[in-house]
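S2.1 Query sequence (F-actin monooxygenase)
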Amino acid sequence: VKERKKGERVNPAHVMFDRFTQASTCKGTLKAFQELCDHLDLNPCEYRIFYHKLKSRLNYWKAKALWVKLDKRAGQKEYKKGRACANSKCLIIGAGPCGLRTAIELGFLGAKVVLLEKRDAFSRNNVLHLWPFSIQDLRGLGAKKFHGKFCAGAIDHISIRQLQLMLLKVALLLGIEIHVNVEFKGLIEPPEDQENERIGWRAEVHPRTHPVNELEFDVIIGADGRRNTLAGFRRKEFRGKLAIAITANFINRNTTAEAKVEEISGVAFIFNQKFFQDLREATGIDLENIVYYKDDTHYFVMTAKKQSLLEKGVILHDYADTEMLLSRANVDQEALLSYAREAADFSTNHQLPTLDFAINHYGQPDVAMFDFTCMYASENAALVRQRNGRQLLVSLVGDSLLEPFWPMGTGIARGFLAAMDSGWMVKSWAQGNTPLDVLAERESIYRLLPQTTPENISKNFSHYSVDPTTRYPNISLHFLRPNQVRHLIDTGDSGSEMCIEMENVVTSSTPKLTRNESIARSSKLLNWCQRQTEGYRKVSVTDLTMSWKSGMALCSLIHRYRPDLIDFDSLDERDQQKNNQLGFDVAEREFGISPCMTGKEMSQVSEPDKLSMVMYLSQFYEMFKDTVPPGAGGDCLPEITSDNMRKTSQAGHSEEVRKTFKG
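Output structure tokens follow.
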């Protein structure tokens, strides 16, 4: 820190910049930013020149250290000095981490970006796990200039609130237009009379008098989480056995005693059976896993078993319907607080001196219990709407696109990857590529997203950019052909493919799939797996759990498509650990499908978790659904690669397979 010489006048702009970088609330950040702009006589709406004007008028060493970071990022060749998307007008719905990260990417590309957030507070204390590339990405955006403790030492996590604040500040500095207390209600189509009213696509927002109602856009991106207010995207649902999560935040007073308490990584604890047995015997609390991160708060997240919640009086009555089971009327809030506190105290070996709950934005103790039995993923990442000669590119990022499976800590990493992928798509759109070409490339890239792990993405983080080839090794940007995404163009013609598909679209107002429908979907996956493993020695697939325990079914599934990778005849069905580990290793190395556990853990569990297995096996289905196995109904394919997978998908041989798991 530089000391001020005695008698030296304080520069108000420097004070205002410090107030902005250190602001700890959303409203405080926006207010400090506006004060800084007013003082320097800057208009953030002049987005093309705003950042450069700000740099020239703020001669302050702390600001200059940040400019160095942002200039380096802005210098990436893909941005073309901020001119790659200079004529694009983009609307983003939601100021969560992924909406903000997408806005920043589009800002660097030179687009006009407007971001809407229906609230004016960042209040989520819950903590996110960061993959190594996410940490480097945020450091490159100047994270430590806004949050000095960011990922110090071995820390690899951050609270959602701190992450939002950090990204909000970067977005504002890049000239991104941010409106809080504004809610997106829907799209307004261009009028038919384009000769007299040259008006394109607009958004209807609340309040109706807000000026955003008058703006036109050629790109709109939904980043408002699971609720997703953008219509037109059909969602796939993965349903496992009942899974009840509890999150709890306790006040962190940053004492020496608190600093000494070790964090708990979920991966290490999931299969530590003795710990869970001791916890159950000592307290009656029965958990499947638990994670503890020390951040702004002491953050705990755990999966609790229903029976122990009933026995401890947290859930009052047992209902088959999950919504009724976890409804407010059926939960004793005081018992829930005690359950969470007792689990946190035991799991940290009673080392935290005080366990006082942090307070949430409702003024209540920050504890929540929710069901994550169902996981959703959008079937597609983007679509194009065409009306009266005007086109609109519509896309999703974040939880709207792909819900995270929280015990695996995938949410923010995959969210950031999708934000960069979206930037690449908008760049392609701005360059005048045809809608079908833009969509085919976007969907080719999206197919990889659910398979990403810290191990199978590129390790050269400093080279990461919007260009997907810098992040995904061996990616085929032309995996899908333009004629395979025709259904993603909505022309408004009642006879078009998309309108027929729209009957089954899941929108925010559509009820969730019933349990019977979910079971039907799982049975289609089961049906596909049975077809692929039929005829293999010692393999009889009758379900998605116990039939896979020996590892023989997994190895046969891989062998079906890549017989060069596994010597199936040499496998011993009794060596469950070895078989499973072989299958897991080959799938991760060759296909980028990360294992749901280790071979040893698979051999030791009494029954594999159905949700984990459905999510794992679905990745094989997604990868091979359009592929003809070697020797089946056509020429023998000695090696199935992305290229010949793409070629065979057009041959029509796999229509029967596609029918078994459609939707």
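DSSP finds 24 helices and 18 strands in the chain. Residues 411-430 form the longest helix (20 residues).
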